[in-house]
């Protein structure tokens, strides 16, 4: 790798990166991918590649000495514990006003996410990506993305009887009694496999609480879909535990890319330099934004424009739980893959997933992740003295999200005679308003880049991940990230190669 010249370098192996690598390789271009996380292809001492949510271990968190679980408390007990510092799979990256959860490893967010694969309603698309032709997206690129990701919906008959979705049926009953539209949410999980988990004829994964730290079976991450196809072309190579730190114009054309190879304890073991004709930033909204604000401020890429770092949003994520009556048990066995949601976007600005609480015991709790129409947008900037990128999001900016979520849950509580849980995010705290799973923006399409992700000022540099999307997708984001990447790479291959 050191000293090599490559036609295309892709930074990161999440959705945007995987689409770029596959389509470039199919067009005959050799691609190298640098990924700061691990490969996640080798079982640990327990015979499993990924750790369980009930027992987080060394594999669970990215370079922390104490876990930072999204659900920090239960029945008055704090859940976090000490772990050895290791390049684990889930990064809880802390900025001043928000903790941003991200996947680390070959497959990016697809390793740790719920696999909920939701295409926004077409009437909301103009607000999601105002500069993109909706007819093209819904006619060509959303279908292409859904097919490439292996998206499907739960068998509705099985849903009615499956023990592991009792929590979702209780969620439906409460939503419908309050007059809210209830929808099935598609997913990339293999539903036939889940049926066998429930029947006891396959090793349990979704039904064993596997999700945040990876699924050992059943979930189709990018490792099984886009990245498998990319590798099968024979033109794509991937270097795990390789973190890109700089990109700058090379004297003879192209770009010099500086990459730190790191150990599993996070120490730099080698620094490498290669030259790439084209560089695709696919390090995720946060990773791409952090790199670009640094490269502009330090003069490595001086012609990047003033939009770099701007337009960042949290997709309006906010969580809450409700305490049900004893006759509304949600079940001790809960599938970790959510499959249903309450759509109050048009009336109240909230789309709430009925989420699992896979504790293994009956909790009488209903738990929700809401995606809301939050108008606040933050900006990344480079702090020269501290040598790090900062984000100016403020915790108080979650208030519009809480208000939107309350349009659903205040009404349900009133109808059911129930109350919010106050024990899940601390002591006497109702709202999980300190985090996001859905970082979006920082190099917005049509602002920091042209209409197809070409960075202004430096030909041959592209953004092709969630950084392009201006802060909100009205539903879970990865299908939109994938579809936009499909659209952009098609244009780039046709026009720039
Ligand atoms: P990512 O998938 O984040 O990939 C970026 C990659 O780049 C990462 O692998 C990272 O390690 C690597 N990288 C970063 N910086 C560097 C660097 N300097 N050098 C080398 N590599 C680098 N979305 C949904 O649609 N449905 C869901 O059900 C859902 N659930 C989620 C649950 C959790 C717990 C989390 C964390 C996210 C969830 N998401 C979900 C969000 C979704 O996973 C992300 O929106 C998506 O992964 C973003 O795709 P991306 O291509 O922009 O970047």
TrEMBL record:
Alphabetically ordered keywords of this record: Cholesterol metabolism, FAD, Flavoprotein, Isomerase, Lipid metabolism, Oxidoreductase, Steroid metabolism, Sterol metabolism
Pathway(s) the chain acts in: Steroid metabolism; cholesterol degradation
Pfam families attached to this UniProt entry: GMC_oxred_C, GMC_oxred_C_1st
Glucose-methanol-choline oxidoreductase C-terminal domain sequence ranges: 436-485
InterPro entries: Cholesterol_Oxidase (IPR052542), FAD/NAD-bd_sf (IPR036188), GMC_OxRtase_C (IPR007867)
EC number: 1.1.3.6, 5.3.3.1
Keyword Lipid metabolism (UniProt): yes
Gene3D superfamilies named among the record's database cross-references: Cholesterol Oxidase, domain 2, FAD/NAD(P)-binding domain
Swiss-Prot/TrEMBL cofactor(s): FAD
Entry annotated with the keyword tRNA processing: no
Coiled-coil segments on the chain, per record: none
PANTHER family: CHOLESTEROL OXIDASE (PTHR47470), FAD-DEPENDENT OXIDOREDUCTASE 2 FAD BINDING DOMAIN-CONTAINING PROTEIN (PTHR47470:SF1)
Family that this chain belongs to: Belongs to the GMC oxidoreductase family.
Protein name (database record): Cholesterol oxidase
Organism: Streptomyces anatolicus
